[in-house]
Amino acid sequence: MTAVAVKESKNLYQEKGREVVLAEAAALQQLAESLNETFDEAIEMIRATKGHLIVSGVGKSGHVGKKIAATFASTGQPSFFVHAAEAGHGDLGMVTKDDILLLISYSGEAKELHAIIDYAHRFSIPIIAICGKQACTLTRIANLSLVLPDVGEACPMGLAPTNSTTLTMALGDALAVALLSSRGFSKHDFKLFHPGGNLGQQLKQVSDFMHKGEKVPLVTENTPMGECLVKMTYHGFGCVGVLDRDEKLVGIITDGDLRRHMSSKLLEQTASEVMTKNPVTLKEGLLMADALAIFEKKSITSLFILDENSKVLGLLHIHDCLRNSVA
C-alpha cells in the first residue's frame, strides 16, 4: 500500500470515528429533551427508599449498570450491582424489602431478569426500568419506566450497542447527579466516599498536608535581611513569612522579592522593607483541590495557612501537592 493510500485510509477512519461521535452527541441531545416528570418521579422514588438502590441487567446493559451503581454509591446513595443471571442462583439474598430496583434492558425483554422481577413482585419491591421501547414486558411490569429516545445505533449495521449504551449511561449519570443535588451533597461528603487515589487526595484539606511548627519559616518585621536569608535557605521553601508584634502574618519574602530588591544594601534592610504585603493565604479547612487551583492561578509556589485571627497555622508548598498526587 502506497503512502497516499495509507493516508487516505486513515482519513476514512477519522471520518467514520467522527460520524459515530456526532451520532452519539445528537442522541444525547434527544435524551436531554425527552426528560420529563417521569424523571422527577424516579428521583423521588430513590430518595424515599430506606435501603439500597440495586441495579441489574445483562450483556452491555449489565456493564453499564455496574458503572451506574458505582456512580450512585460514590455520590451518597447506597447502591450495588446484581447480575441478572446470578440473581436466581443465590444473589437474590442481597435484595431486601427496603430496597429499590433499577432494571436495565434496551429491548425490555431480557429473560434473565425474570427471576429478579418475580422476587420483586413477591415482596413488593419497587422497580424502575430503563429500556428502549415503551411497549415491552419490562415497562409493563415496572412501577416506573424511563424510556430512551428511539435513535437507532451508531453502528452502520444498526446492531452493536453504541447509542443505546451511551444514552443509558448518561441517564444513569443524570439520575445520580440530580439526586445528589437534591440532597445538598457537598465536596466534603464526596470525600468520605473517595479516601484514596488522586481524587481522594484532592478532597483532603490543606491542614492534612501543611508543614507545622518549627518547620515553618517565620521572622518578625524588624528581622535583618541577613537572618531572613539564612532562614529561607535552611527551610528550603524559597520564602519566609513576616509577622507583626501580635504574631499576625503581614507579609512574605520570596526569591522574587530578593531579586527585585537586589543591591549592595540588601543586607542592611529589614524584613518589612523587602516583604510583599498582604500575601495570598489559605484557610485551614480549604480542600487541596482548591489550593492547587490557587497555586496555578496565581503562579506561586508557597501558601501560608492562617486561622481566623490571621495567625500562621502552617505552610503548604506546591511540591506537597505533587508528592501527594493532588496535581
Characterize the structure shown.
This protein is an alpha/beta fold and 327 residues long. It has 2 domains: 3-185, 3-Layer(aba) Sandwich (Rossmann fold); 206-323, Roll (CBS-domain). The chain is built from 14 helices and 12 strands. The chain has helices at residues 3-34, 37-48, 59-74, 84-87, 114-122, 137-141, 163-182, 187-193, 197-202, 225-235, 255-260, 271-274, 288-298, 318-323, and strands at residues 53-57, 79-83, 100-104, 127-131, 144-147, 218-220, 239-243, 249-254, 276-277, 281-283, 302-306, 312-317. The protein has a 5-stranded parallel beta sheet. Helix 3 (59-74) runs parallel beside helix 7. The chain starts with a helix and ends with a helix.
Kindly, what is the distance between the CA atoms of the first and last residues, rounded to a whole number of angstroms?
45 Å
Low-confidence stretches: none
Q: Characterize the overall form.
A: elongated
- Give me the strand/helix succession: HHEHEHEHEHEHHHEHEEHHEEHEEH
Total of helices: 14
How are the strands ordered across the major sheet?
2-1-3-4-5
Number of E-state strands: 12
- Radius of gyration, in Å, reads 29 Å
Main beta-sheet strand count, sense and barrel state: 5 strands, parallel
* Helicity range: 40-55%
Task: Output the CATH topology of the largest domain.
Answer: Rossmann fold
CATH architecture of the largest domain: 3-Layer(aba) Sandwich
Strand content: 15-25%
Tally of separate domains? 2
Structural class: alpha/beta
Under CATH at level 1, the class of the largest domain stands as: Alpha Beta
Mean of pLDDT: 86
CATH superfamily of the largest domain: Glucose-6-phosphate isomerase like protein, domain 1
